[in-house]
Write a structure and sequence with these properties.
With 648 residues, this protein is of the alpha/beta class. It is built from 26 helices and 24 strands. The protein has a nine-stranded mixed beta sheet with strand order 2-1-3-4-7-10-13-12-11, with helices on both faces. A hairpin with a 2-residue loop joins β12 and β13. α2 packs across α8 (175-190). It starts with 9 loop residues before the first helix and ends in a 24-residue tail after the last helix. The relative contact order is 0.08.
Length: 648
Amino acid sequence: MLSDFLPTTRKEMELRGWDQADVILLSADAYVDHPSFGAAVIGRLLEAEGLRVAIIPQPDWHGDLRDFRRLGRPRLWFGVAPGCMDSMVNKYTAARRLRSEDAYSPDGRHDLRPEYPTIVYTQAVKQLFPDVPVVLGGIEASLRRLTHYDYWQDRLRPSILLDSGADCILYGMGEQPTLELTRRSLELIESYHPALAYDDEGNAMLTATALREALVSLKQSVVIYDNEKDIPSGITADDIVLHSYEDCLSEPRHHAENFHQIEKQSNSDDAHRLIQQTGRRWVVVNPPYPPLTTEQLDHSFDLPYTRLPHPRYEGKRIPAYDMIRFSVCLHRGCFGGCAFCTISAHQGKHIMSRSKASILREVEAIAQLPGFRGNLSDLGGPSANMYQMQGKNLKACAHCHRPSCIFPQVCPNLNGDHRPLLDIYRAVDALPYIKRSFIGSGVRYDLLLHDWKDDDLNRAAADYTRELITRHVSGRLKVAPEHTSDRVLQLMRKPSFRLFHAFKRRFDQINRECGLRQQIIPYFISSHPGCHAEDMAELAVETKQLDFHLEQVQDFTPTPMTTATTMWATGYDPDTLQPVFVARTPSEKQAQRMFFFWYKPEERHRIEEELRRIGRMDLLTKLFGVKPNGTSAVKNKKSFTHPNNKHK
């Protein structure tokens, strides 16, 4: 029924007896009422606080902007939630080519989402309702809260607040700052603040000017001030003043130094306020909230989602929904700290875990969905096997600034107990309406192979490995070693490839013992900062020796606010400020990517030319059996059979 969803039209508002919404959310994704879709989470969260919340999904930004007008003015603010993915990553490949479909749009259509919807939507709202506050959220704004590198324009850009004209950003996972901003806003309205606006019936409405007061020292918010003297409390000794936007433009090393501080404060429980000047204006980033408690996270997941796309999409396919409709997220956050990943930048490195009861309630709700046949596609999270893992001494964690708890070594303070996760798996599998539960999220095999100096934890890791492989793999287990070169892996903040060898041996052993014929599918990245064509050639040789014909591969895509993107943009490692090689040009990138596909006849000639150019005839021999004199050392040509025929 329409009334089961948050309203998206004036008619749906009238069905609820509303003449005005308190908050209107603008989403660049289709409206799917599911806890994996940010607009639905914030909408349901505010609804639970008694607010009237409406959603305008994928408004048409052309012409007279009628979609932005159709629900009228909200009593509090417009919230811009541009989508589950960065809009440019969602739209373009690493080669800047249009993707085959938009996964978050009905029928995968490309024309329903603008580039940079955060900017486009905000400017449309400000044109129509100039005095109404606009609050930004979601990953696109969160990772662009300060000076950032934009790969698609190949330049540093200032905070997205300046480009958009919005009033603030609530960065990271938005539940806590959204609730606090709402509380403060309602207090302002009840106090008859002089900057409020009033409708014809005398009802108070928030304005952008009044919102400024509610934003003072609000944790996990970003605000711009026109003058240094306007910054609340002024600039103090506790603040971290970053290099200005203009300094970063003139000296790339300054941007690398800035990022080191931004990452350090993002992952700290005693974070400081960050301040950056841009022109004559000042961007102020207030420290984040502590991680959500289990009770708070349960509340977010237990809200009354229908778990379905809005009825307006009847008969249409939403690709991203098809992927997650029968999956369950067990936790948020990731302490892996991979250099190229945005998860810790947005969700944080601390693991926030749901209770067993909340997880089982969601599984029961999924079982009632149309089309469910008893199989869960994923019991996972950002990393599948970090559920309930945290420091043994949380006081030590509070003052730790390491971006990763497992790189370069596993922290001795980390409690890597897999038993709580095994308990979840077994409880779910014991339900009468569940046939199989699969693990579709990435598994950190370094956590499984680590010696925890505790027999119980080592036994639990071994039990988890066996149960994962024998009960939760649908024929293929995907893992992400990312590269084979230890030097490149060091820059990626990933463990040595030796651990992958060890895990594969364990995987193969368990399959033999249990009579299974499953595959392990490794995921690799080319053109990561620090990676040369020679490294990729060695990767090709090593994966050939492991009998892999690679499928899960990707050219590195620079995304805002990651260590790897900072290397790409500046040529410096922000952790050490040492220079780093970057394969930037299309030809340099292609010279690396082709090594993934050494087994394809159409790639062989170019690979041979590149290996001769870099003087690695030894690798040429290992890949193709070519002797230094150019003759073939392999008589049996069948060894180069196309992978599709390999197992016939």
